[in-house]
Amino acid sequence: MAQLIIPTHRLDRLAMALSGLCLVHCLATAVLLGLLSAAGGWLGSPLIHEVGLTLAMILGSIALGRGIREHGHVLPALVGLFGLGIMGYALSLTEGGIEPLFTVLGVSILALGHRLNAMAAD
Prior knowledge:
- By secondary structure, the chain is mainly α.
- The protein has one domain (10-121).
- The protein contains five helices and no strands.
- The protein has helices at 8-35, 40-43, 46-71, 75-92, 99-121.
- Helix 1 packs antiparallel against helix 5, helix 3 runs parallel beside helix 5 (99-121) and helix 4 packs antiparallel against helix 5.
């Protein structure tokens, strides 16, 4: 049975795209909440944040962990783990307030970790 092997650099790019989508989601939610309060019920749903963080953790663990095995550099994984930690902390905050700031910060740091991982693999 053949296994589908996805190269690490592709996983990192996919993870960066997911981080970008998260960033767009956070910014779009803030803008749409200001413009259309009815849209906030769906876009601001905690379920979206929980699913997004779960996907980020799974994909990040695979891509960053595989990167350590392939190129031996631990720094990208540590940076990515720090970003995931900030994202997890943001989930514990009350919606609104400073929660979007920590989410965007965590997503940005996670994306940096994936970028470092992709650069180390090249």
